[in-house]
Amino acid sequence: MKIRLKLNGSWREFEISNDDTLLHVLRDELRLTGTKRGCGNGECGACTVILDGETVTSCLVLAASVDGSSITTIEGISPQRGLHPIQEGLVANGGVQCGFCTPGFVVSAYDFLSKRESFTMDELKRALSGNLCRCTGYKKIVEGVVAGAETMGKEIEND
Amino acid sequence: MENFEFISPITIKGAVSQYKKGANNYYLAGGTDLIVLMREGILVPEKIIDLKTAGLPSGIKKLKTEIRIGALATLSEIEHSSFIRKEIPFLAEAAGKLGSPLTRNRATIGGNLCNASPAADTATPLIAVGAKFILSDGKKERRVKAEEFFKGVKQTVLKKGELLKEIVIPRSAGKGIFYKKSRIKLVDLATVNMTVYREKKKYRIVIGACHITPLRIRAAEEKLNKAKKIDLALINETAEIVVKTIKPISDMRGSAEYRKQLVETHVARLIGELAGVEV
Q1: How far away is chain A from the Cα of B234, in angstroms, using its nearest Cα?
Q2: Residues 6+ positions from A141 with CB-CB distance below 8 Å
């Protein structure tokens, strides 16, 4: 079947198979390989994208079920040149080790930060709780996101 | 995943009639359980019928005497809804403790209920608050009480093709508390979950993940409802009745014995909190 998606700001139309997941279409058809395939069962968050304004694990979304939707992937967040402040914050704070989980974390953090002017650390940690890092660098990831948030002019409240 | 036919019906009637054409068809709501089972080859559907296009009521509505939640409302919507947080905070809390934010943004309350896991996080608060479910077979609707909806592990009263359309919750001044124990703080299935609810000095006690269905413990409720005064001794006796009634299993999330101890401790604590008795 044919579906239309507003992908990182521009409408695209393409042919999919009924059993294609959104993750498969993004990575294997459109070659947007910033979105990673981790567990494939919605548990690790490596495949996080923003679907109609909400973060989801794209491995558990059938492409056929999102015809007409708007999708933002890591490629739509990272600028053409240089890095997004969240990415810069992660790099500067040692929040990237093997890097496999990083795009998912950036998408979750971006969605969280772009919806609010201020946040508590507890809220931030909850927002990132669907993204797993097996290098176990959570503290530095959170510090990196906080650094990015500060660059973006967001305020941190006490818990 | 094996290939299947993907159908986007535009009415409930259309969805039901498609479902009935075949023995191996599945409704798709959020898909966060269904797609995992399909990937693992546990389910090999002939047809996937997408309910999102089928005209089911969506969102959360506040009416004069009841709150209505569309079966396709996501757990995130329920978690963040300002009036659910105000009027049924224990349901918002249960929704907010299911899976990860990524799952909650996609998973629906209807899916959580129809999947009928004994550990379904939204089940105990809905049973405790006296919710009713509106079921539709595309022609007729019927209402069933939340506590009568579950029949066993992965089994409900839904007839072939029938679907859960809407959840109706009476507006009341009652107070409830939800508790969930899982192995890690966030993003895990419940080892046990429970809701204790109190309205006009009447209690409802519902325990999850300790039986083939979420279970209302009426004998324990009676004990509290008949008492002239609720004190620590009575609460402990009530907790004992609860523990004697449940039939937990041992699995990767905890042994039966551990589940019994969790239930005894925390049901007493929740009753104490509602009754104003230190436990």
Answers
A1: 37
A2: A90, A95, A105, A128, A133
End-to-end CA distance of chain B: 51
Q: How far apart are CA B111 and CA B107, in angstroms?
A: 7
Please state the rounded mean pLDDT for residues B245-255.
93
pLDDT tens for each residue of A91-115: 999 999 999 999 999 999 999 999 9
Using a pLDDT cut of 90, give the percent of chain B over it: 94
Residues A95 and A141: beta-carbon distance below 8 Å: yes
> Superfamily for A2-77?
Beta-grasp domain (3.10.20.30)
**B 140-179: CB under 8 A from A:** none
What is the rounded distance in angstroms from the CA atom of residue A117 to the CA atom of residue B274? 36
The predicted-structure confidence for B34-81, as pLDDT tens digits, reads as follows: 999 999 999 999 999 999 999 998 899 999 999 999 999 999 999 999
Q: How far is A18 from chain B (nearest CA, A)?
A: 6
Q: Which residue of A has its CA nearest to B38?
A: A19
Q: Can you read off the two tokens belonging to residue B157? A: 């009263």
Each domain of chain A, given as residue ranges in start order, spans: 2-77, 85-154
Domain A85-154 matching CATH 1.10.150.120: the answer reads yes
